[in-house]
Structures are given as structure tokens and as C-alpha cells.
Amino acid sequence: MTSQSQGIHQLLQAEKRAKDKLEEAKKRKEKRLKQAKEEAMAEINQYRMQRDKEFRLKQSKVMGSQSNLSEEVDERTLGKIQELNGSYNKYMEVMLKQLLNMVCDVKPGIHVNYRATH
User: What is the widest separation between alpha-carbon atoms in the chain?
Assistant: First the structure.
């Protein structure tokens, strides 16, 4: 009987050792998974920062060129406005005189399409 209880005791100890080894393996696996997750997150953050930096550079180049175009358009617009104002001031007097002459100098006459009815 002692040999049976000794065999049972050995089996229980072997079972306990196997259980302990399984627990250790699970802990190591969880630790490796956690470490891999942290490394992946760090890599993702680094990649995100790199892409964000590239985006900002491209955005600044595009926005910079757009602001240059905007300034050029503003300059052209102001130049055109000044040109039109100068033209207006130059020809205003002449045009007013011509308009007043045409309105005030009425030459009465019979229209060519008028038919006299008797």
C-alpha cells in the first residue's frame, strides 16, 4: 500500500510540476505578447509621426505656393483697378460733353418712315 500511495504522491507531484510549468509558460507568453504589443505601438507612433511630418512639409509647400499666387493675383487686381480708374478719370469729361451735346442738340425733322395721310 505504501508503494501505491508513494506512486500516487509522485503522480500528484508530477501533475503539480506540469501545472507550474504551464503557468510559467502562460506568463512568459503573456509577457511576450505584451512586449510585442508595446513594440508595435511604438513603431506605429514613430511611423505616424514620420508621415505627419511629411504631410506638414508638403502642406507648407503647397500653401506657400498658393499664398504666392494669391499675392500675385492681388497685385494684378490692384493694377487693373488703378488702370481702370485712370482711364475713367481721363475720358469722363470728354464722354460727358459728347453725351450732353447729343441730348441737347435736338434737330427736329420728319422721320423717313413717316407717311403723310391726307
Answer: 159
DSSP state of 112: T
Q: How far is CA 24 from CA 11, 31, 32, 36, 93, in A?
A: 20, 10, 12, 18, 102
C-alpha cell at 107: 434737330
Number of residues that this document lists for the chain: 118
pLDDT (tens digit per residue) in 2-47: 777 888 889 899 999 999 999 999 999 999 999 999 999 999 999 9
Phi/psi of residue 5, nearest 5 degrees: -70, -35
In whole angstroms, give the CA distance from residue 73 to residue 80.
10
Q: Which three cell numbers stand for residue 74?
A: 492681388
Distances in whole angstroms, Cα of residue 43 to Cα of each of 17, 38, 105: 38, 9, 89
Q: How far apart are CA 82 and CA 88, in angstroms?
A: 10
For 59-93, what is each residue's pLDDT tens digit? 888 776 666 777 888 899 999 999 999 999 999 99
